[in-house]
């Protein structure tokens, strides 16, 4: 018999152990080892059966057992101690509380997905894991962040394989009552619980989209998740938050409207109910949440006390908004037809805002763009005064990709900076590594993040730890592989071979990530014979553990998985190469520490950052990667290997052949020999049961491990990332936002009026003439060049503009390289709107020298000279 309805009944705990409920619902347990150990100690068997989910654990403990625990003074004392520790963590000042008054009182962080724990499966890949690590690091540092996202009824999807190795997707429905979530409610009255908070958005054809708001506590950080599966909705509206990145155009658009506009509404209600300060900074993590800017403009324009105009509201909102782009390719950006956007906004989503103004924000009205398309990233950039990519190289790529928004500017001047991603160390470092650090150096050294102490650990201890981690991975792989084959239809009698898959003494290489084509899952298969020889080498064998999900609509990615799995099914190599389906946080916790080398071979420069290699590095794994994403800036020759990149002129086939050959070469001649040092073999042939053993301690390899830990550990941490965001983006955005809003939005109003004046006048601006004096017929280093620029400003004044000379080495094409800029001062009013600007330049180089003059708008409220996208070149 099947139930017609299923729901989760929460456990009622005896009074003495009641703090367990709060410990279970605060997701700090997902990275706080002592709290996890407390839950595991209540019932080790049930802890394993519950897949390390504290709420599921408490729900599965019998009432009699709970009473027994409540009567155990030792258990009660441990629970009370853990609860007191959580209280201290939540209340005591941390790094952020030591900053100055300019630090924002509250920051809203919007993301379409959050990967915090496998218990709350609301993530698909790197973007969500990054968002989860962002919240965790903010909690540890005391950053007053509020996360905003959606609660997907089926999360992303669970992956399995068919007998012929084709990816299968299933979508188990989640019960929010069984998750570490609390439904946001209005205040209770007379002991009666308040009604659930309900957010509403008007939809076309007189329909309405309603959503409840669930709260997850990520340490000190509240995460608000909007859920459309509520009784007030019709069936179509209930399904809006059905699954992550599911559905077609209108479905995805409604998800993003709910995330952005509904998310701001949820924040406002949360402020009222909790007394939390209003966010001073709004951070949009990728373009999916961009509509939050429209909702904020709607608020400002509909303010009954002091409504702002469109231009004023736009200026005020931009000042306090940060936009982070994560994609290095236009195809990765959500784009909608402008008629779709118009259809939804004409339903009254933002009644105070002119729909045409909204359409212009996302319109690709630049060279190479499609004006009939609404681009979410373009809207995100136009709604934010500050923007960033997620690695230095990605910043370069982003400035090139969005150059159309700033015509006439050099790519280096486009106002998109970069903050390189990081990973939350307590989540991703293996507890045994942390324990080794505590045993050798004390808990204080661990708390201070003394990565450099890795050099003080003996080579023998490091190597023993690495083998222990590798052995744990081998054990986990065997269990998962057997389960995978059973789902593919294999009988137990066929699966004896899975008990001997992998070897804890063989060089182990990991590769796990999403499977779009540009990540090249199957590059390793370019030459199957050569890969097979590497796997079965009698002296220096390697073994590979591979995992990853392809988007359900990406048949090319699924074909890659199928091709790889068919190779791993070969009885000759299946003991040395495995594919594990359903890659998630739980699998990653064993995979990253257990691999000696982490492989990454995307098409450069299509990897925005690629944080999986960072997670491996903090566990002492070495990276073997194309110089892309974070590896491009942090590879130093001693923390791993760089896979050479083929020249851009090569075809895609040639490029793959060249780079695959380079990968094989590195494995054969550098990686494997260095891991093994001198080996002893039993003399078996390549296809036989060879038992290679590395030397007692391969000292060069261990030195690379120590170097990786000491140098990459602090560099790749999410704490470093959060501090970068706070200092380079959040604090300046908060200052700008306060200034814009001060004295009844005086600065925002002034900036809006000034911007309108400048935009109207700009087409008439002209650099009429430039001359220079002070240089002889044979210029020498040290000579001073006086540059005079005659500029027609018409009805603008010299205070409205910045006139600068840019100079440097001049190429044969007259392009300037190694450019230096200097501002020219207003020297004389020549009448009729004409002005003379002048300044001096010292010639500081030999060889070809050149200069040019440019004019930009100038205002104290602009964050960069390129902000308005206006420039006049001489």
Walkthrough of the structure:
Strands 1, 2, 5, 6, 7, 8, 9, 10, 13 and 14 form a ten-stranded mixed beta sheet that branches. Strands 21-22-25-24-23-26-27 form a seven-stranded antiparallel beta sheet, with no helix packed on it. The protein starts with 18 loop residues before the first helix and ends with a strand. It is built from 27 helices and 27 strands. Helix 9 packs across helix 10 (292-301) and helix 12 (338-349) runs antiparallel to helix 13. It has 874 residues and is α/β, with parallel strands linked by helices.
Short note summarizing the structure:
This protein is α/β, with parallel strands linked by helices. The chain contains 27 helices and 27 strands. Helices cover 39% and strands 18% of the residues.
Helical amount:
25-40%
- From the alpha carbons, calculate the radius of gyration and give it in angstroms: 30 Å
Distance between the termini: 81 Å
User: Beta-strand level of the residues, as a percent range?
Assistant: 15-25%
What structural class is derived from the secondary structure elements?
A: alpha/beta
Average pLDDT reading: 93
Task: Give the biggest beta sheet.
Answer: 10 strands, mixed
Give the total of beta strands. Answer: 27
Number of helices: 27
Judging from the principal axes of the Cα atoms, what is the shape? globular
Contiguous uncertain segments of 5+ residues: 679-690
Protein name: Alpha-glucan family phosphorylase
Pfam families: DUF3417, Phosphorylase
Modified residues (N6-(pyridoxal phosphate)lysine): 615
InterPro entries: Agluc_phsphrylas, Glyco_trans_35, Glycogen/Maltodextrin_Phosph, Glycogen_phosphorylase_DUF3417
């Amino acid at each position: 018999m099947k139930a017609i309805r299923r729901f989760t009944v929460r456990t009622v705990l005896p009074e003495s152990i009641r703090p367990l409920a709060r410990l279970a619902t605060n997701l700090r347990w997902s990275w706080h080892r002592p709290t996890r150990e407390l839950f595991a100690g209540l019932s080790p068997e049930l802890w394993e059966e519950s897949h390390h989910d504290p709420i599921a654990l408490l729900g599965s403990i019998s009432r009699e057992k709970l009473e027994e625990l409540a009567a155990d003074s030792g258990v009660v004392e441990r629970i009370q101690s853990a609860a007191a520790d959580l209280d201290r963590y939540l209340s005591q000042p941390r790094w952020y509380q030591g900053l100055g008054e300019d630090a924002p009182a509250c920051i809203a962080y919007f993301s379409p997905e959050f990967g915090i724990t496998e218990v709350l499966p609301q993530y698909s890949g790197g973007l969500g894991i990054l968002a989860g690590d962002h919240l965790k690091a903010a909690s540890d540092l005391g950053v007053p962040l509020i996360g905003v996202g959606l609660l997907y009824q089926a999360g992303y999807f669970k992956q399995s394989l068919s007998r012929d190795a084709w990816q299968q997707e299933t979508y188990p429905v989640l019960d929010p009552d069984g998750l570490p979530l609390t439904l946001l409610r209005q205040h209770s009255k007379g002991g009666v619980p308040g009604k659930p908070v309900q957010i509403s958005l008007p939809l076309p054809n007189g329909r309405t989209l309603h959503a409840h708001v669930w709260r997850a506590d990520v340490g000190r950080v509240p995460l608000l998740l909007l859920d459309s599966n509520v009784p007030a909705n019709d069936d179509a509206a209930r399904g809006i938050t059905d699954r992550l990145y599911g559905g077609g155009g209108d479905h995805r658009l409604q998800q993003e409207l709910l995330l952005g506009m509904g998310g701001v509404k949820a924040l406002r209600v949360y402020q009222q109910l909790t007394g939390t300060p209003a966010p001073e900074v709004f951070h949009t993590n990728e373009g999916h949440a961009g509509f939050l800017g429209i909702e904020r403009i709607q608020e400002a324009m509909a303010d009954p006390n002091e409504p702002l105009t469109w231009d004023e509201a736009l200026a005020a909102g931009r000042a306090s908004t940060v936009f982070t782009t994560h994609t290095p390719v236009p195809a990765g950006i959500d784009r909608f037809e402008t008629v779709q956007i118009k259809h939804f906004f004409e339903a009254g989503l933002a009644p105070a805002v002119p729909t045409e103004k909204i359409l212009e924000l996302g319109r690709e009205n630049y060279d190479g763009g499609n004006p009939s398309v609404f681009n979410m990233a373009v809207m995100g950039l136009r709604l934010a005064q500050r923007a960033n990519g997620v690695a230095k190289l990605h910043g370069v790529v982003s400035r090139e990709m969005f150059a159309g928004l700033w015509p006439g500017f050099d790519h280096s001047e486009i106002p998109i900076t970069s903050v390189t991603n990081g990973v939350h160390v307590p989540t991703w470092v293996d507890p045994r590594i942390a324990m080794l650090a505590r045993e050798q150096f004390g808990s204080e050294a661990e708390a201070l993040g003394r990565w450099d102490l890795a050099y003080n650990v003996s080579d023998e201890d490091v190597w023993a730890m690495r083998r222990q981690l590798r052995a744990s991975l081998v054990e986990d792989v065997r269990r998962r592989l057997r389960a995978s084959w059973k789902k593919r239809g294999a009988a137990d009698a066929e699966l004896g071979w899975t008990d001997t898959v992998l070897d804890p003494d063989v060089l182990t290489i990991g590769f796990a990530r999403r499977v779009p084509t540009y990540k090249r899952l199957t590059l390793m298969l370019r030459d199957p014979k050569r890969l097979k020889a590497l796997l079965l080498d009698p002296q220096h064998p390697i073994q590979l553990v591979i995992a990853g999900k392809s988007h359900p609509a990406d048949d090319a990615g699924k074909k890659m998985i199928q091709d790889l799995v068919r190779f791993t099914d070969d009885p000759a190599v299946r003991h040395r190469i495995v594919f594990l389906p359903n890659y998630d946080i739980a699998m990653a916790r064993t995979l990253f520490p257990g691999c000696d080398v982490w492989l990454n071979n995307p098409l450069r420069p299509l990897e925005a950052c690629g944080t999986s290699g960072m997670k491996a590095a903090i566990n002492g794994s070495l990276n073997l990667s194309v110089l892309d994403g974070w590896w491009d800036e942090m590879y130093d020759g001693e923390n791993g290997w760089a896979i050479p990149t083929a020249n851009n002129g090569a075809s895609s086939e040639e490029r793959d052949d060249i780079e695959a050959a380079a990968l094989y070469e590195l494995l054969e001649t550098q990686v494997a020999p260095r891991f093994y040092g001198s080996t002893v073999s039993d003399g078996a042939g390549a296809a036989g049961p060879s038992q290679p053993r590395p030397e007692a301690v391969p000292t060069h390899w261990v030195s690379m491990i120590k170097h990786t830990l000491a140098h990459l550990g602090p560099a790749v941490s999410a704490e470093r990332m959060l501090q970068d965001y706070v200092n380079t983006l959040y604090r300046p955005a908060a200052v700008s936002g306060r200034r814009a809003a001060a004295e009844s939005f005086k600065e925002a109003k002034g900036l809006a009026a000034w911007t309108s004046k400048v935009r109207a006048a700009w087409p008439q601006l002209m650099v009429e003439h430039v001359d220079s004096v002070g240089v002889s017929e044979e210029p020498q280093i040290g000579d001073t060049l006086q540059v005079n620029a005659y500029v027609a400003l018409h009805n603008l004044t010299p205070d409205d503009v910045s006139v600068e000379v840019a100079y440097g080495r001049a190429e044969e094409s007259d392009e300037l390289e190694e450019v230096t800029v200097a501002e020219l001062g207003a020297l004389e009013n020549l009448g009729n709107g004409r002005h003379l600007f002048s300044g001096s330049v010292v010639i500081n180089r030999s060889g070809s020298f050149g200069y040019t003059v440019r004019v930009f708008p100038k205002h104290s409220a602009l964050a960069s000279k390129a902000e308005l996208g206006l420039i006049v070149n001489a």
